[in-house]
Amino acid sequence: xxxxxxxxxxxxxxxxxxxxxxxxxxxxxxxxxxxxxxxxxxxxxxxxxxxxxxxxxxxxxxxxxxxxxxxxxxxxxxxxxxxxxxxxxxxxxxxxxxxxxxxxxxxxxxxxxxxxxxxxxxxxxxxxxxxxxxxxxxxxxxxxxxxxxxxxxxxxxxxxxxxxxxxxxxxxxxxxxxxxxxxxxxxxxxxxxxxxxxxxxxxxxxxxxxxxxxxxxxxxxxxxxxxxxxxxxxxxxxxxxxxxxxxxxxxxxxxxxxxxxxxxxx
Length: 266
Description:
alpha+beta, SH3 type barrels, Alpha-Beta Plaits, 5-stranded antiparallel β-sheet, 4-stranded antiparallel β-sheet
């Protein structure tokens, strides 16, 4: 009985020592990983990388280091690696099914880096979310919506769906429709709107802004208004055109000037 108790105490001491070492290894390793990632981020050659590649690279380094840390902790606990490999092999199908989504997201992240449908800082619409791309990691892409919400989208879903990038081109077109009373002179209304667009600093002169009568009802004339602006100035141009055209039509005595939203704006 005494021998059994002694052996049990020795086993507890041995196991307890390994657990303490494993905890210390995790805490120290976590600090070291943070410092290494910070050093990688501050390396001159890394800092000059495109922000998209920069965030992806740091995410890759961080995950790789944590994998090494986990393997080290398993070794400290005295678990034979051959046993770990055997368990993983026997549970390969279950693990594969469980990680199917994660592996799909990983593959999606790699494809995002290769094909680059968007970069950090671009405004995109994808997988039911809209916002500015803040970060692209191995598994997820983080967006910030116009109303300051943080949306995390799986990379797999991004690569398997349509992506609208509103920042990829230098210019964007503002699509608006204005209406007025049916009895107004359409040529006069058209000239008033064109004059407003030519004076607007946010509206580009090339391509030229487009204004044309696009239809009519029994009560109103409809004018398609299509000015172009720099992508970064889209919202400034959008609201200033609405304000200036509405004011100009009102000042000219145009009856019943109204704005009709042509499509959902982004």
